[in-house]
Amino acid sequence: YPPAPFLAICVVYPFGMGYAARLMSEGLTTFLLVGAVRVLAKRRLVTTRQALLLGLLLGAVVLVRANMILIPAVFLSCLAFRIRRAGLPWGLPVLLCALGCACALSPYSWYNLDHFGRLSPLPAAGSGNVLYLATWGSTMNQQDFESFRLGVTTDRVREFAAEVGAINLAVGVPVQTPPYAPEVYITPRKKILADELLMAAALERIRRHPWDYARSCAWRVWRLWNIAAYPPGIPAAVVIGLSAVSAAIWLLGIPGGIWLLRWRSELAVCLMGTTLYFIAVQMWLFPTGRYTAPARPLLALVASQVAVELWRCSRSASGKSPSAQ
Predict the structure, then answer these.
(1) Cα(82)–Cα(95) distance, rounded to whole angstroms?
(2) For residues 291 and 54, is the Cβ–Cβ distance under 8 A?
């Protein structure tokens, strides 16, 4: 594919750029994830040494962002698909890739076993707070959550505040502590207890309101990639332009990327497998845009490829040769 469409999209698609200017896990995750895609999608097949490197990169991605825990399975499947398509044995490269990933994850896993009795590469305090917030997504908006954080208890926030207050009392922290991140609970033991209580409360809300939760999950397929409200002070024309660009890239990158899979291109399988992973995992959780930041370059790349294929199809339909242009 020619690079010009991808570069043009990068010029008008600034989402995720803000994370590059901050010392946050998203910037490092983007670097590692794009590096892993680069190793897997090279023109030449992955060598045994590169398979081991790919595993180390994937293990590092998981260590930086715990929500990437299943991304090694996506890459192992893509690696096996690519090698099998070439008619070569795929067992050894896949095994080496898995071994590299396990080597990267083992020190932290043993640390968790030693300190918390859990042999796991995931933090002892999981994503209970994120799932809990997601279950309130159909009845509360961002302004409501911000009101609770500021101590303003409105009618819409009252039930949420009462439930969170009871959990905070059980954990042993101030009643008004917002459950927006495990760090607010200070000590590891309190973080783990808060995570367990918030997870139990989240599952109970899902049991009581299954359809509300299902609708909010379906809506997140769009909302994860498209900003609901821009910061104040941005001119209306800029907001309209950014919203239009975001919607166009989403249409080209998600539905268009699925359409692109009909050619079973190795690069398309790798890019779409990685991009759709973010939807499959994050649609169940709170729709924060930073969670999809590492996939933004991949989404832009898929969108550029779909744009090229659409142009080629239009040229073929009109009886003109795409290569002639």
Answers:
(1) 15
(2) no
- Given 3-state DSSP classes, what are the helix, strand and coil percentages for the chain, each rounded to the nearest 5? 70, 0, 30
Band (pLDDT 50/70/90 cuts) for residue 324 is very low
Instruction: Name the packing angle between helices 48-64 and 71-85 (round to 10°).
Output: 160
CA distances (Å), 198 to each of 20, 167, 188, in order?
31, 7, 15
Question: For residue 92, what are the CA distances in angstroms to 50, 215, 285, 291?
Answer: 12, 43, 36, 33
- DSSP notation for 7-19: HHHHHH--TTHHH
Cα–Cα distance for residue pair 324/29, rounded to 1 Å: 40
Write the pLDDT tens digit of every residue in 198-254.
989 989 988 988 888 888 888 888 888 888 778 788 888 988 988 899 899 999 988
Give the span between the Cα atoms of 302 and 286, in whole angstroms: 25
Q: Give the span between the Cα atoms of 288 and 222, in whole angstroms.
A: 12
Report which of 48, 52, 50 is spatially closest to residue 38, judged by C-alpha positions.
Answer: 50
Structure tokens at 112: 């968790």
